């Protein structure tokens, strides 16, 4: 079981939720155009980034997303969950290193991307986009408080993110390969450890990770060595030529059940051969809806309140109907504008504390 004296304790994605960080949208800015952006965002959004990088998103969308996030917080608090929020920050202010300059983005909206909670320890990610170089800073007030109260807290090595970290020829490197995502087809190189926490998913003593356009093998090796024998870090791969974060591809619901993306998961990864793979239905998000950061499959980006209750975007009626058939109780919450900014309930939260311990759900 989790340590009652430690404010941080979360080993999986489904035990009863007790404390969570929920992001904020205030101050979000459009990340400047860069090959790392090109490799991950929908092509129909490319021109938007070229025109508006460093500027603001439409004010009415920011306001709508703020209302959705605040409404979600009220629902969590009514359910007895303690909610923390990061410090707001003006992401349009420029920053940089000796090698490059940038402005920020909307990383303070999606805490799942910037830190991994591994048991009683917070692990800050490096982040693969220059625009997210200081992505963890809005959360430092919270992390410092947790550390003072007994939590573990460590940050991955600050990356240089020079041109040596990026592979401008990544698109041309795609082709027939036995590897679903050949190293040379990633926009990031193996020059230094790079990792986004959104590429990790927790299953008790096992933590799944995918290599992507924002997480390389060097970064995976760093996490594996950091966590040591406490956790088994298992690398998995899916059929996705623009991978970035796992929670719109492979979403755990409870022991034995996973929600999968039918376009990216033709068969379950090796450890999950005996688990039920619930195929997510076609998203209700209109095909012509503006999506700045991700595909319509963000609709499957749900969050478990416990092993039965699950937060689902209010318009995803087919998904809720399927989950009800599988024995879950969907909690519909409006979140469509937040989806537009690139995240769902899982992205917009970092579950700091869940009741439960480091169970072993697999046998090697």
Automatic annotation (TrEMBL):
Keyword Magnesium: no
Domain of life of the source: Bacteria
This protein's UniProt keywords: Transferase
Coiled coil: none
Region annotation Disordered: where it falls in the sequence: 85-106
InterPro entries per UniProt: AmidinoTrfase (IPR033195)
Biased composition (Polar residues): 94-106
SUPFAM superfamilies registered for this protein in UniProt: Pentein
Keyword Electron transport: no
Family note: Belongs to the amidinotransferase family.
Name by which UniProt lists this protein: Amidinotransferase
